[in-house]
Amino acid sequence: MDGRPRTKEIVDPTYPLLEANRSVIESIRRETFTYGSPDVHKLDVYYPPFPGSDGLPPILAFFYGGGLVRGSRSSPPSYLVHNNLGAFFASRGILVVIPDYRLVPGITFPEGSEDVRDAIEWTIENVAEGDSNRVFLLGHSAGGVHLASYLLLPSLYRSSSAFGRVHGAILMGVPCEILPSRPQFYAIAQHYYGSAKKVSANHPLSLLRQAEDSQICSLPPIRNIMAGSEPRAIPTSMRTFARECRKRGGTVDEFILEGHDHLSPVLALSSGSGEDWGYDVVRWIMG
Question: Cβ neighbours of residue 220 under 8 Å, at least 6 residues apart?
Answer without folding.
Answer: 137, 151, 166, 167, 168, 169
